[in-house]
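Protein in question quoted in full.
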Amino acid sequence: MAIDIPYPVTFQPETAPSWLQHAVVLGGGRAPEGAFRYLELGCGRGYSTLLHAAGHPAGDFVAVDANRAAVAGARAGAEAAGLRNVQFEAMDFAACAKEIGGPFDFIVLHGVYSWVDAAARVVLREILHEKLAPGGVAYVSYNCQPGWAGELPLRRLLREMGGDTRGVEGLRAAGFGYFSANPVAERAVAGWAERPEGYLAHEYLSEAWDCLWSADVQDEMAAIGLRFAASATLRDQHEALLLDAEAAKAVAGLSTARQRMLALDFALNRGFRRDVFVKGATADDGAGLRTLLVEATGEIPESIVVPRGRIGFQPAFIAALRGLMAKGPQRLGEVVKALGESGDVARNVMWLVAGGALSPAVPDRAALERARNALAQIGMGVEH
């Protein structure tokens, strides 16, 4: 089934160099700093890459996609935003492997790895192997099991029905047993109308689509010298935010790290992962954690919601943190020092980052906002 629908415009903060640096340091490693080179494979219309380039002026950004119309739009965006540190190339991954010169300190693949066939994944791993610099960081997101188990049959049904969403909705409304036995599928169909144009085509109707297991992906990356370092979904790096005591004990009782990783996928019913890998061994001496730059994403709340439930913080702590973060982005070490320099303070600040109340900060927020406004002027903005 041929799909020729424009990609939705989305912004993925987890693919920002500053966010990836944060993830790697939390995982106990060190990420590239200072000037760097960054490659995005499958950039679509380039919105994330454009904003990353604006917010990280020390970076040299390259992004490729086989869709020429999408790349043309991304180039127009770069021109409108006045960005000179980013280039977009219209080419497939095989051409990228031959024509784009490395090395790169960051290589990111968002919404690509499980949306291409096995042969294309081989080429992607070749690019990672050949073009990622020693100590470099790779971000690979993908649909995964077991979280798709209840919804996966919808893909087959929708493809068989030629993409007729109303037909599928009619079956759901008729009370078919599959939907009553799989509430996640029922909710998915009910929410289709709210999805942006192109979502169903690329998520359900494309020829090449797979649902992977995290252990298999990590094996594939290990074979090319990439070590799993962390999750770019920052809350996943804090098990205390994910599991209650009983579930945590069950996971901890398993004999290997591989079993524990898969058990966590089952415990959380994960359907999507944002895995971060590093090339070679890296270790952090603690300095990296202290120098991470964080900012408030809004009014800092006194509680956050995480997979385990709602976690509250002392009002006095939140009041002091609000006053500090009102000054703008702060180094993590300076925040902890100002608030008492205790282990609890450091933990609470990191939990607030994991919960989204704080966020890894880009080096130049003002430039990023100028670029966002310039892109909005030409009709390029986030659809959801």
Observations:
- The chain has a mean pLDDT of 92.
- The CA atoms of residues 324 and 338 lie 8 Å apart.
